[in-house]
Amino acid sequence: MDFLRELCARALTTLKNHQLAARRLRALSRKDPRSKAMAQTVGEATAAVLVHELGGPEQFGSARAYLKAAGLNLREKSSGKYQGQLKLTKRGSSRARRYLWMAALRLLQTDAVIRAYYVQKVTRRGGRKSAAVVALMRKLVKGLHACARSGQEFDSHKLFDVSRLALSPS
Domain of 59? Predict the structure, then answer.
């Protein structure tokens, strides 16, 4: 019984520490103009992690450099098993990629244009959903870089060729 009480006390302490860290993170991201601009698109936590792990997108000369910093650039990998397939290099921050993955999944639920792109990608790739999410992450990073460089808000209509997507009327 004492073990159970101690376990519950530790769980409550951990929960309080997590809530405190989340409040601090939100406060810091509101103060930093780089993460504040990205937070509207990917959320405060993801924006703070991206700025901390990679730096602000405006610091990179091109979207390709920002992709490379995140480890989302593609490289041909060939061996006895694979013949010239493109794979992620994963040379950047794994934490940034994890948060971008979650941001991409969140945008799939909320943005109709992004959802249509995802569905088209999955059907074209033979049902490979994770590859479609990675493609969406790459598009998202390029969009964040463009928004940081231009000072405009993120707009999924500018990121995708909407005329080619099968959007359902809403």
Answer: 32-164
Q: What is the CA radius of gyration of the chain?
A: 19
160 within some domain? yes
| Alpha helix positions (H), the chain | 2-31, 33-42, 44-54, 63-70, 94-110, 112-124, 129-150, 156-159
Question: Does residue 86 sit within a domain?
Answer: yes
**Per the domain annotation, does 12 fall within a domain?**
no
DSSP state of 71: T
Q: For 81-100, how does the pLDDT look when each residue is reduced to its tens digit (9 = 90+)?
A: 777 778 888 898 999 999 99
Residue 88 belongs to some domain of the structure: yes
Region 99-105: what's the mean pLDDT? 95
Angle, CA 14 vertex, CA 13 and CA 15 arms, to 5°? 90
User: Which amino acid is located at 128 in the chain?
Assistant: R
Q: How many domains does the chain have?
A: 1
